[in-house]
């Protein structure tokens, strides 16, 4: 198994200011990082974007994953893709996100689907989601990027819980003329939601654009729960997945100690 790891700096090293985290990841031995949307608004100022890009490049790490603006994540929001009242914010965010990704060499953009709302039917939300995913897909397509669709856990009104449900959305969008939508395969979320992870790996072969890991229960580092993460990663590799594995877990202690399970030589893409 020869998979490469990156650190999600929206959930790890959060004791540090945002712009100091890329350097902390580098010092911990990693060459690559990913982020949720780093700002509380869909369109940050040019100076904020410049500061963020500079922090990543100065740390000499590769940005390999970036979320589109997803609303107030801490407050329970899980994306704007299917949210009619805030769809315009998502659309305004598309160009900002993909432009930042293109600048930093990032090719994977996670479009969180969004919770069900009381003022729209599921059918209306799903139709809107397809429209927005097609727009995002076409924007990323211009430079070889992909848009990710992710099942998540812990959000009662989020409708995509299994790999099959996310793949169904991807199929609908693909029928509208985009071929660069992929599944974000988060082992933790799928396991917590009760999906059959083995079956999901087989059914998703060739359609996975990014992988994320955390142990369960607890969403902490591997070895703190009951998931056989090495086994699942080996299974993913056996199906042909050779992309990044994002460490998207909450440290059970200090962030600096949250990587003890991963030998130093396995943290670097050149290790």
SSE order and pairing:
Layout: E1 4-8, H1 21-27, E2 32-35, H2 46-58, E3 62-67, H3 87-104, E4 108-110, H4 122-141, E5 146-149, H5 163-174, E6 181-186, H6 187-192, H7 197-204, E7 208-213, H8 229-238, E8 244-247, H9 264-267
Parallel strand pairs: 1-2, 1-8, 2-3, 3-4, 4-5, 5-6, 6-7, 7-8
Helix pairs in contact: 3-4, 4-5
Please explain how this structure is put together.
It contains nine helices and eight strands. The protein is an alpha/beta fold and 271 residues long. It has a single domain (4-267), classed as TIM Barrel (Alpha-Beta Barrel). Helix 8 links the parallel strand 7 (208-213) and strand 8. The two termini are 13 Å apart. It is globular. The chain has helices at 21-27, 46-58, 87-104, 122-141, 163-174, 187-192, 197-204, 229-238, 264-267, and strands at 4-8, 32-35, 62-67, 108-110, 146-149, 181-186, 208-213, 244-247. An eight-stranded parallel beta barrel has the order 1-2-3-4-5-6-7-8, surrounded by four helices. The longest helix is centred in the middle third of the chain and has 20 residues, at 122-141.
């Amino acid at each position: 198994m020869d998979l490469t790891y990156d650190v999600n700096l929206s959930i790890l090293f959060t004791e540090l200011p945002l712009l100091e985290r890329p350097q902390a990841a580098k010092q911990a031995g990693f060459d690559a990082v990913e982020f949720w949307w780093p700002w509380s608004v869909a369109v940050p100022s040019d100076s904020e974007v410049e500061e963020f890009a500079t922090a990543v490049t100065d740390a000499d790490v590769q940005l390999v994953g970036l979320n589109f603006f997803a609303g107030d994540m801490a407050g329970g929001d899980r994306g704007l893709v299917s949210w009619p009242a805030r769809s315009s914010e998502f659309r305004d965010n598309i160009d900002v996100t993909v432009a930042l990704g293109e600048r930093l060499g990032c090719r994977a953009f996670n479009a969180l689907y969004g919770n069900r709302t009381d003022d729209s039917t599921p059918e209306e939300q799903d139709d809107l989601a397809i429209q927005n995913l097609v727009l995002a897909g076409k924007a990323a397509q211009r430079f070889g990027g992909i848009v990710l669709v992710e099942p998540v856990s812990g959000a009662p009104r989020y409708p995509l819980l299994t790999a099959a449900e996310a793949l169904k959305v991807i199929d609908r969008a693909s029928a509208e003329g985009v071929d660069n939508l992929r599944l974000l395969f988060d082992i933790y979320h799928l396991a917590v939601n009760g999906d059959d992870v083995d079956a999901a790996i087989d059914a998703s072969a060739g359609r996975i654009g990014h992988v994320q890991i955390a142990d369960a229960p607890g969403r902490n580092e591997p070895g703190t729960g009951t998931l056989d993460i090495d086994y699942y990663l080996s299974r993913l590799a056996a199906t042909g997945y050779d992309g990044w594995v994002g460490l998207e877990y909450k440290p059970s202690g200090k962030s600096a100690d949250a990587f003890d399970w991963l030998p130093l030589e396995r943290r670097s893409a050149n290790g």
